[in-house]
Amino acid sequence: MANWFLRIFGMGGDGQNSSTPVLTKDRAAESMINSLESLNETEESLEKKRALLEKRIKDELEKAKALNAQAKKKEALLALKKKKMLESQIEQTDNLILRISEQRIMLENQRTTAEAVSTMVGAADAAKQTMAEMNIDNVDKLMDEINEGNNMMAAVNDALGQGFDLGINLDEDELDEELKQLEAEANGVGMDVPETPLPSVPTTVVAPKAKAKAQAEEELAALEAEFAS
């Protein structure tokens, strides 16, 4: 079995290229597909033949019963002999169907295994090619560059976190005192608010009618004084 797989992939038994002509993978796959199709067709044909034989056996049995009922013993025995011969053919057909089924199953398993092996070979080649292109020196250089970039970023973040020195000396006690003063002003403590005197309310209430009468009398007196002069 191992040699069979090696020959499929163009290799000799020692793992080297064989000098004897072998099937390529494409031709081997095509040959296997054709064989499977041929086996399926043959199996279907045998199944049809078996169904036909069963029908003929049933017919011969019915014929033998009818002839025996008619007292035609010789003809009835002949029908039974034909029935036995047909049964023998069915047995042979069943054996052929069984052998073909076994062969078909074997080829299908081999085809599945060959496809799996081909896939694994392709994966191994791809992995080998990838590793060949991956230089360890390039990987080390890449990691150094990444670490250097991370260190630079950390240094920048540290520098930004230190804040700025504006050269101004700030007295913390003085600032606290000023803050307390602002809080006191906001709460209305220590603020002198001048009192504004309210206007006095007159105590004498002049009736509207009396006021109008007095005004009319004043106007009349003014007119009389004007005519007298």
UniProtKB/TrEMBL annotation:
Any GO BP: late endosome to vacuole transport via multivesicular body sorting pathway
InterPro entries for this protein: Snf7_fam
Keyword presence, Cytoplasm: no
Signal peptide: none
Top-level taxon of the source organism: Eukaryota
Primary location recorded for the protein, binned into one broad class: other
Identification of the protein by name: Uncharacterized protein
Species in which this protein is naturally found: Ostreobium quekettii
UniProt lineage: Eukaryota, Viridiplantae, Chlorophyta, core chlorophytes, Ulvophyceae
